[in-house]
Amino acid sequence: MSDPTRPAGPKIVAVANQKGGVGKTTTSINLAAALAEKGRKVLVVDLDPQGNASTGLGIEVDDRVLTTYELLLEDIDLNEAILPTAFENLSIIPATVDLSSADLELISNEKRSFLLHDALRQVQMDLFAFDYVLIDCPPSLNLLTVNAMIAAHSVLVPLQSEFFALEGLSQLMLTIREVRQSGNKELRIEGVVLTMYDQRNNLSLQVEQDARDYLGDLVFKTVIPRNVRVSEAPSFAMPVLNYDPASRGAKAYRDLASEFIRNNARQKVEA
Ligand SMILES: Nc1ncnc2c1ncn2[C@@H]1O[C@H](COP(=O)(O)OP(=O)(O)OP(=O)(O)O)[C@@H](O)[C@H]1O
Ligand SMILES: [Mg+2]
After folding, report:
1. Where are the bilayer-spanning segments (predicted)?
2. Of 113, 127, 169, 188, which residue is least crowded by CB atoms under 10 Å?
3. Quick one: which ligand is closest to 234's CA?
4. In which order are the strands placed within the sheet that holds 11-15?
5. How far is CA 41 from CA 33, 63, 88, 144, 163, in A?
């Protein structure tokens, strides 16, 4: 079933935060899986040389023949890079460690910031009829992340519920502003999602309070709890929704997907 709220082309969302280990990959994988479970066709683009999204969705390194590296740096067709996963409605463009040199290799390329944008707008994209594309960004504000932001309609920011969580957000917002000025005027903030939330911990409550005070409606109502099943799932090469469908983590990502779909339906009406 395609999403009736999105008639023309997929909605492209960059999942970004330059801080490491805040839940970017976990959110990319599990939000994608939850959207797919609700019948949306989803593509995950692994834009991190660590390749964690590829591993977490069960793509063996040997099967990563054409990857985001080739998509950006060599002239390959999009459909050659897109792999199905073992999960219905969920596809991926994988990444390998090769991508770690892309940042340098791209510097001399005149179109360096627009390569992912152009690749994702190849005509074959229509054949796949994706509703959503989620780009898992590396923990950096480098050229890869800029490519993701230029390619995207919006940025989704996972924020770990811990001390100093809000530090670094101003740097991220600055980059978003620069991208708006340099090639993607329409880039929106999809929302900030609190991850690894522990409601017994005052620090989590404080981070949530601060985030809601400073960012208001930009913060998703859904928070993602710290849940061991979420962290175990990647080693079984599956989203937590498949690994333990009844876990608190799976439920939270389903709620996030519902909220995300509702927000997107509203944005369409407003547009
Ligand atoms: N809700 C959660 N509950 C428990 N563990 C979690 C949760 N979310 C993420 N983790 C764990 O926290 C670690 C970091 O998460 P993740 O890899 O998603 O972050 P990241 O921002 O993608 O990291 P990087 O910046 O290295 O790409 C992982 O070990 C992951 O399994
Ligand atoms: Mg990651």
Report:
1. none
2. 127
3. 1
4. 83-84, 90-93, 42-46, 132-136, 11-15, 154-160, 188-195
5. 10, 22, 8, 24, 36
Q: Which residues of the chain have pLDDT under 70?
A: 1-7, 269-271
Q: What is the pLDDT of residue 271?
A: 64
**Residue 195 CA, closest ligand 1 atom number:** 1
Residues 6+ apart with CB under 8 A from 205: 199
**Side chain identity, residue 48:** D
Nearest C-alpha to atom 16 of ligand 1 is from which residue? 23
Six-digit token string for 242: 């498949």
127-147 pLDDT, tens digit per residue, is: 999 999 999 999 999 999 999
Distance CA 81, CA 220 (A): 32
What ligand is nearest to the CA atom of residue 26? Answer: 1
- 28 CA closest ligand 1 atom index: 18
Q: Which residue has the tokens 């929302």?
A: 191
CB atoms within 10 A of CB 80: 13
- Ion ligand 2, residue ranges at CB < 5 A: 24-25, 52
Which residues does a 6 A CB cutoff place in the pocket of ligand 1?
A: 20-26, 48, 50, 52, 139, 195-196, 224, 226-227, 230-231, 249
Only one residue has tokens 């976990």, namely 26
CA distance 260 to 257: 5
104-121: string of b/e by CB count within 10 Å (b at 16+)?
A: eebeeeeebbbbbbebbe
